[in-house]
Every structure is written in structure tokens, then in C-alpha cells.
Amino acid sequence: MISFSKRTNYLSDSPTLQLNDRIASLKDQGRDIINLTVGEPNFYEPEQASEAAIEAINTHFTHYTNSSGILPLRQNICEKLLIENGLEYAPGQITVSTGGKQALYNTLAVLVNEGDEIILPTPAWPSYEAQIRLVGGVPHFIQLDETTKFKLTPKLLEAAISKKSKILMLNSPSNPTGATYSKGELEELAPIIEKHELIVISDEIYERLVYEMEFVSIATLSEYLKENTIVINGFSKAFGMTGWRVGYSAAPKVIAKQIAAFQSQITASVSSVSQKAAEQAILNFDSSHVDRLKFCQDSLITDIRQTELDLRIIPDGSFYLFPNIKPVLSKTYFGKIINSDLDFCSLLLDKVGLAITPGSFFNAPNNVRISYAKSLEEIQEAGKRLRSFFSGAEA
């Protein structure tokens, strides 16, 4: 019998991918499904990026590159971080990776020893916990909800810290809640982080998709935080380049050196063609994407508030809404009792062809995640279907 690594014993396929397999099956059967489960924007890479990729192919720029990424891309990332975020890095502090997910795993792999605690505010993207466990770390969950607007508070952070605490995982704007920390909120957390000498992994993949407030990176708040924060970012969410698979980390020199060395032994370099596309994309963000997302958000909010779902928190960033489903639990719809978020999402899919994500996937079983990264027409139809579910569903 094959003996597997104990670190992988608990792993299973991503629940979101399993859900999307079911949705694909229904579509294959001819069902009309609106899929609001996927964390993928409906826009595409900038024209400059696709042109650069075509040129790279035509000029045979298709061989190995520096394992940390081509220099012009890393230089442009540094320029972006300086201009937009007020963060000064040298190209040697940037490691270009195969998506933000690899940038995150690289970072955890070089920092975490067996038994180290990583403070993980939840609701959270499931891959955080999976990756923490894969490198031998122990996730220390802090359960957040609407009472703190799904944001970590100084009191909650202080209470969670133990002698084994090494890293704080911070995701702003958040997947799945859209919660985005203001400068003032981060400044309240900073003294506690510094007092306990924590390292911060700041996942900023949604940072360009922020509404009516200014995004602030925690690494800008003090010299300690600059020297003890690893910024994770990429091209999937802001540029619609999910399939190009380009992410990056920006880190203090000593950590960046270890990340680069680790990646050189795992994947070596990222696709050369994708890097050329990213080199042009990074400085050509189309801010009209944010305006279109806000229209979709406003439309969906209006529809949700005409249902029994409880949407108290309007997120400041990302492209998700995270309504509470407590008002529908134990009620009967279409002859079925809703006992959980899974029941609700399954019945919604079956009866009106609307797919959303159960909050339990993110350690938040009282909520559901709804992505509005679609065309306005699709979002309006989704809102119509959601309202129709409630208007005629009581048994």
C-alpha cells in the first residue's frame, strides 16, 4: 500500500471547483445557468499585453528566463508599487511567480517551521489554510462577522497571539467578503503587530478594485512593517489575466533572496510569453473596470435587499457580496427545508438556475458569496432570478 505524506492526508479537491463541475454538468444538459461562483473578472488583458505576447512568440522569446522573472517586468512592478502604493523596492526584491497562489506558497514555505502558528482571520480564501498546513504550520483562526464588518480589530488580534504566533495573514480587499481596511484601521493593528514581532503576509491581489476609498498597504505604515511584510499580488483580478498565470511577491531583501532560491528549485521561471504580456499590463490598468463593477454591485444590492437575505455590510473592494442567510434557515422553500448554506445554494441552482457559493467554503456557514464580475445584463438577470426564488417559493 502506498503511504502518502501526512501533510496531504486532509487535502481534497477545491470545493469551488467541485461546485463548478456540477454547474458545467447542468449546462451540458441544456440548463440555462447564471454562474456567480467564479472569482474571475469578465474583462480581458490590456491590448498592449496581448500584442506584447504575440510579438514574443513571433520573435521566439520562448526560452528560459531568470527564475525570478525578466528584469523589465520586475522593474515595472517596482515602478507600479512606488507610484501607486508608496512602496520602494529594487528588482531583486521582486519574485515573479506562476500566479499569486505560488507567490503565497513560496512565502509560507521559506518562513514557516513545523508548529509555527499563522493567525488567519476568517472568512478566508480556502487555499490559505491548505497552504499553511502543507508547509507544517498551524492556522489560528479568528472568526469575524458582520459585527466588525468582517475586519480584524486590535482586541481580537491581541487575544489571538500566542508564543507560537509567527505570521499574520492579511487579505485586503478580502475574498470572500470584500472587506477593505482603511489606513486608520491598519494603524490600530500596527502597534500590536510590532509589539509581538509578527511577520505580515499581505495579499493585495484585489487592491486595484476598490470603490470610494483609497487602498493602503500595511507595509507603508512603519519601517518595521516595511521590513517584515511580504506583499503578494498578481495579474488575475485587476487585469482579467487569470489564464496567463502571473503573480509576484515583493519582500525585504533577506526574505526575497530565500523566496527566489526556493522558486528556482520548484518551477524555475514563469512562462516567458506571459511575462512579456505582464510587463505591458502592469502600467496599463483600465480604471473603467472599477466603474463597471460598481454598477453591477449597486444593481445586485438593490435586488438582494428585496429578498429575505440580510445584506448589512457593503464592501469597499473586490467583486463579491457576502449576505447573511440566517433569515432563511429552517424555512421551507419549494417544499424543502433550508437547514444550511449548502441547502440554500443547491435549491437556488435547481429551481432558478442561479449559482452562488456557500459561505461554509470560507468558514462562514451563515453567509453566501455572490460574485458580480459579470456583465450588467447578466447581473440584472441574476437579481431577477434571486427575487423570483423568494417571491413564489414558500410552500
From TrEMBL:
InterPro entries in UniProt: Aminotransferase_I/II_large, AspAT/PAT-like, NHTrfase_class1_PyrdxlP-BS, PyrdxlP-dep_Trfase, PyrdxlP-dep_Trfase_major, PyrdxlP-dep_Trfase_small
Molecular function per GO: pyridoxal phosphate binding; transaminase activity
Alphabetic keyword roster: Aminotransferase, Pyridoxal phosphate, Transferase
PROSITE patterns, per database record: AA_TRANSFER_CLASS_1
Listed cofactors: pyridoxal 5'-phosphate
Enzyme superclass (EC): transferase
GO BP: any one term: amino acid metabolic process
EC number of the protein: 2.6.1.-
Pfam families (alphabetical): Aminotran_1_2 (PF00155)
Domain Aminotransferase class I/classII large, first and last residues per copy: 32-385
Family statement drawn from the similarity comment of this UniProt entry: Belongs to the class-I pyridoxal-phosphate-dependent aminotransferase family.
This protein's name: Aminotransferase
